[in-house]
Amino acid sequence: MSRAGNTRCARCGAKLFWLLFFALAAWAPRAHCADAALALNDAQFLLSDADTPPGDSAPWQAVRLPDNWNLTRPGVGGFGWYRLQFVLPLRPQDGWALYVRKLSMNAAFYVNGSFVRSGGRFTEPVARHWNRPLLFAVSPALLRPGLNTIHVRLWAYANSRGGLGELRLGPETLLHPEYEQRYFVQTILPQLCNIVVAAFGVFAFALWLKQREALYILFAVFTVLWAIRSLHMFARDIPVSAFYWDIWVQSSFGWCALLFTVLAIRMAGLHWPRFEKVLLAYAVLGPTLMYLSGPQHLHHVANNWSFVIVPTAAVFDALLLRQAWRQRTLVSALFAVVLGLMIAASVHDGLVHRDKLAFDSFYIVSYVMIGLALVMGWVLINRFVAAWKQAEQLNRELEQRVAQKHAELQQNFERLQELERRTAVAEERRRLMSEMHDGVGAQLIATLDLIERGGAQDRIVANELRECLDHLRLTIDSLEPTDNDLLTVLGNLRYRLEGRLRRVGVALSWQVQDLPALPSLTPQNVLHVLRILQEAFTNIIKHANARSITLSTTLDASHVCICVEDDGHGLPAAPQRQGRGLLNMRRRAHEMGALLDIRARPGGGTAVSLHLPRELPHRPGADRCDAPKWGAAA
User: Fold this and answer.
1) What is the mean pLDDT of the chain?
2) CA 138, 142, 143: angle at the middle one, nearest 5?
3) How do the residues of the chain divide into helix, strand and coil, expressed in percent and rounded to 5?
4) What is the rounded distance in angstroms from the CA atom of residue 358 to the CA atom of residue 523?
5) Across-strand partners of 200?
6) What does the alpha-carbon distance between residue 20 and residue 497 come to, in Å, rounded to a whole number?
7) What contacts 380, CB < 8 A, 6 or more positions away?
8) What are the angstrom distances between the C-alpha of 516 and each of 72, 561, 611?
9) Which of 94, 208, 265, 583 has its CA 20 to 30 A from that of 505?
10) Are residues 74 and 43 in contact, defined by beta-carbon separation less than 8 angstroms?
């Protein structure tokens, strides 16, 4: 919506609000039954504590109803008597009633000297009827043709809305509808308005629990405080003395005004913490001065304290109007207008008991308050919905970003997997090439050199070629899946070497036991184990002149041990320079993080022990046997 459209909507809303307000005021019942009921305005008054109506000889003084004690008897409180006289041509046949629009604080009614009814107790705290109409049935038997007299015994607090409004006497069927309408407008409808206002406060508190914004909790406290404060408009019997009750009533009104001033400051986008602290100090000052002033001056102090707040609220309403003019939005315009109406209604209600003609009117601030609650509720809901939509938008953007990052991570993961696959293939290719070059290639070169020099026997060449085949087969065996089972690896080795041992007349004793899985038994480590054991068997066949070989396995808490023992010549007595085969065995053991131990057996022969850790390292070159306990070199 454009700013011009918002401005037109604001003007229309303000006009509609004023129209409803004046329609409600016009609906307040008037003398639609005036032709059939007597309006009693001329009375006589006597200030007296008497329990029964004073006689004709008492010093009665003429007064005109409504009689506002704040104007006619300032500073006076206590009991007073009113006498109203009227003439009836005939005694009524049907039931009549006595209707009073307003009185303060309580009264008892007598017709021709007979007690009719009272509004409640006259002992402290006195029953309070300052904001409710009264209707009493009057028996036709109490009335008579000719002159009749009504006495009203009134109790009023000094400077506290004391007085008596116009009395109406007539048929109950005519006065009762007027009383019901007045009671609804003056008492029931404000109660309903305050219930709605409190409901908005509870709703604002619920919003504050979801989104900790100061405006929500300020409005919640304001509305709940207002609803509690407004109970004095409906309470007839109060639980404490009138002095403490009036301190609460007057103070709570000022607190509501100050709270709403803070709301106006926040709504205007201002941040004045020092000024808000001044308002807090002023809120504490009011009830303190009221208590110290005592019952006689309480209302004078309270009125002056409250009306100091009115100009402050008017200033901040001007700020809201300026903000509404700048923003050109319907919400800000309605908020400023309703706040202005609140200030006007508060001033009106404060002046009701200061004006004689306005004494019979009722208080209107509760009706304006419902409009304020609606507008403020609208503002808070709009803010919450806007924040909620923003959060949803952020969630959608976050989900999009997460999905985008997920796709990027997936792509990076796939690229990483492909890179790792290529690296693994290249590493495996490099390993195989190295093994082929160092093992099979070196053996073939040595065999070829032996043949080229001549004189090589066929048996020797055949043995060299068989060793080449063994190297090749072990390399191929290392690529087979083993499921981390060392026994499978040893079984493949036995299958490859057992025929060769049989041909050279060496017996093989196989003494293995069940072994746990070795998690890091990778193809590289499998090949290391096979090469070490192959080298051990080759050395025994070539150099030890052994007749039997025993391969056994043992297990302890941290190692799996493979031991190859023979009954050959054993290790030489004098140390010799280690050959390339033994160096390769030690290098491979070191790369696996294993321990290689070569020792002479006490009864003859050699024992080669390979101690494999139960958790083999995953990377080559793990330095786990930097200082192994090697036996003497073979």
Assistant:
1) 79
2) 95
3) 55, 15, 30
4) 105
5) none
6) 110
7) 203, 204, 207, 215, 216, 219
8) 111, 12, 14
9) 583
10) no
Give residue 3's identity as a one-letter amino acid code.
Answer: R
**Partners of 97 in beta bridges:** 137, 170
Note the residue count of the chain.
634
Do 116 and 235 belong to one domain?
A: no
CATH number (domain holding residue 558): 3.30.565.10
The answer, yes or no, to whether residue 6 has pLDDT greater than 80, is no
Pair 477, 496: CB distance under 8 Å: yes
Query: For the segment 386-435, what is each residue's pLDDT rounded down to a tens digit?
Result: 878 888 888 888 999 998 988 889 888 888 888 887 776 666 666 666 66
- Cα 24 to Cα 28: distance, rounded to the nearest angstrom: 7
- Listed residue (620, 622, 563, 556) closest to 597, CA to CA: 563
CA distance to 170, 290, 554, per residue, from 174 (Å): 7, 44, 117
Return contacts of 212-215, CB within 8 angstroms, 24+ apart: 213/383, 214/266, 215/263, 215/266, 215/267, 215/380, 215/383
For every residue of 144-168, DSSP letters joined together read -SEEEEEEEEEEE-TTSS-EE--EE
* 130 CB-near residues (< 8 Å, 6+ apart): 102, 103, 104, 105, 161
* Domain shared by 22 and 52, yes or no: no
Task: Report whether 134 contacts 173 (CB < 8 A).
Answer: no
Mean of pLDDT values over 364-393: 78
Domain holding 161, by residue range, is: 38-181
Query: Which residue has 């304290």 as its token pair?
Result: 305
In a domain, 187, yes or no: no
pTM above 0.70, yes or no: no
**Tally of domains in the chain:** 3
Residue 84 shares a structural domain with residue 118 = yes
Whether residue 542 sits in one domain with residue 489? yes
Q: Nearest 5°: CA angle at 44, between 41 and 46?
A: 140
Q: Note whether 70 and 23 are same-domain residues.
A: no
Cα–Cα distance measured from residue 593 to residue 617, given in angstroms and rounded to the nearest whole number? 7
CATH number at residue 334: 1.20.1070
| CA 183 – CA 133 distance, rounded (Å) | 6
Residues in Cβ contact with 617 at an 8 Å cutoff, skipping those fewer than 6 apart:
520, 592, 593, 624
553 to each of 481, 484, 487, how far by Cα in Å? 21, 16, 9
Tokens 């020792």 sit on residue:
599
DSSP secondary structure string, 415-445?
HHHHHHHHHHHHHHHHHHHHHIIIIIIHHHH
Q: What is the CATH number of the domain that holds 125?
A: 2.60.120.260
What's the token pair of residue 537? Answer: 């068997």
